[in-house]
Design a protein that fits this description.
CATH architecture of the largest domain: 3-Layer(aba) Sandwich
Number of strands: 19
Mean pLDDT: 93
Largest sheet: 9 strands, mixed
Order of helices and strands: EEHEEEEEEEHEEHEEEEEEEHHEH
Structural class: alpha+beta
Shape: globular
CATH class of the largest domain: Alpha Beta
Number of domains: 2
Distance between the termini: 50 Å
Radius of gyration: 19 Å
Strand order of the largest sheet: 3-1-2-4-9-8-7-6-5
Strand content: 25-35%
Amino acid sequence: MAKYQLIAGALALEVDETMVPLVESSWLPRNAVAGAGETPAVIRLGRRRSGSNLPSSSPTLTLGSARLWISDAADAGTLTGTEGCSGTIDFTQLRADLATPEDPAGRAGIDLYPMLTISAAMLLGRLGRALIHAAAVIAPDGAARMLIGDARSGKSTTAANLIARGWNYLSDDQVILSRGASEELMVEGLLRPFHLDEGWGRNGPLRRRRAVDAGTLGAGRPVARAPLGALLFPRVSAGETTLLGPVSSADAMAGLIRQSPWLLADRVAAAGVMELLQLATRLPKFALRLGLDTFGNAELLEGILVSGER
């Protein structure tokens, strides 16, 4: 088995050697550390050699092609995907076991992305951490700005523009929120290729996306962990100018919950995860309306953010 540490001191992924190319192309973060030490929680991925029985009840959570059922005692979970992948989660042992069919078709990766994400979110929740669908960049003051929003809300474009201005970065898609040694909120990223509009860096958006290595975007560099400094909720509004404005704590909380759809699936971890999100909403928080004026103008976007946070 190939082993990767996903989150230092928290979560590891163990993969059948023959499946490393599949998981690299579908989910494995670029900042995963190969051959790392022991962690309290582990996800294992192999091949299934026998069928699995699924609950007859409605799933607790559906994410993309994956479905999750949590047992009544909240000590176990069952996963299945539309492309033949399946798995279980043992909350007592903090272990998830996922499997593809014996001869997986090329579409197995469609299942693996949501199933690995669910497994990571569930296990991290039991460790008092929150997995959030968000991007995060590091401002010159050394604190992270978390960009929270739906797909195509402008998270990746905003992050790319700030990287071009020299801001360091954590991720453009999934981040983990936790408490540091001094009780401050810390952010870590699951770093994968950024998905940017093909028109970024040119004359304007083309409404087609491509995968881009973040290291090619500018002077900014990947960072493993940073304190959380502020929340940004981007929204694309092409016909208007870019504007940074206030957002209420209630709206910020609603946005964080929306980007943590697995939050309430595990009633044991939910209270602790909710507390982390509530603490985050006490930090400075802003709605970021993104117009075409800043799509290709990183300097203007940075200026709006810096002046608006003062």
